[in-house]
Amino acid sequence: MSNLNPIAKFTFALPVAGVLVATLSAAALGAFSIFRDQPPWMPLNATSHVLHGPAAAEVIDVTWSHTALGAIIHIGSAFFWAAIAIALFRAVGSAGRGAAWVVGLGTAALAAAVDYGLMPSRLTPGWELVLPSFGIIAGFVALGVGIAFFLDLAQRHQAATAAGSSQSANSIPEGAAAPRPELERMRRPTSTELDQRQQRIDPAGLVTADLNWRDDRNRKQPGGSARSKEEGD
Fold first, then answer.
1. How many CB atoms lie within 10 A of CB 220?
2. Closest to 149 measured CA to CA, from 98, 87, 100, 85
3. What is the reported pTM?
4. Closest to 107 in 3D by CA, of 75, 73, 81
């Protein structure tokens, strides 16, 4: 079995993982925002501080310029980190059942380090403007869990598909004959035929008969045949 997970391909995995990660992380951020008596979309509004500055965190209403922009940035970021995780998962393949969770949570830790360690303050997610530290951590944990959950599901699907293929290839229905190689089918079209052109020899005469043999007990031919001699004896 190949270690490369066929499901972890960008053509299929990235859209699904990106949507899942964006949804889970937004839900976690929204839950903590509600816990602080704020609307659940406040973290998205705060993310728009990239364009509007810190004042974006003071906008309570749902607006195109703040909420929609923050959602677009949030989804784009989720897709970016999902792509990083998928690339890492394809590199490690199915090394173990915990590989998906290591990659998912490791990617979340990397995202946190980049967003709040390397990026300038104007390019951070902006969550720190409306949420406490544990709310920010929850957002990144949700991101990692979403990635890990999807990759683990992909890994399980791969294992189930490989097991089913192996069982189908090795199992023969009860009462059915085992499949014959192509060369054998050419040599023996049916159970009672033998194609001598395929250089199969039947010295015991179990399948083929000598079409030139004749009953020559009349002894017209000198010596007769071996079978006639045996019968004569």
1. 7
2. 100
3. 0.66
4. 81
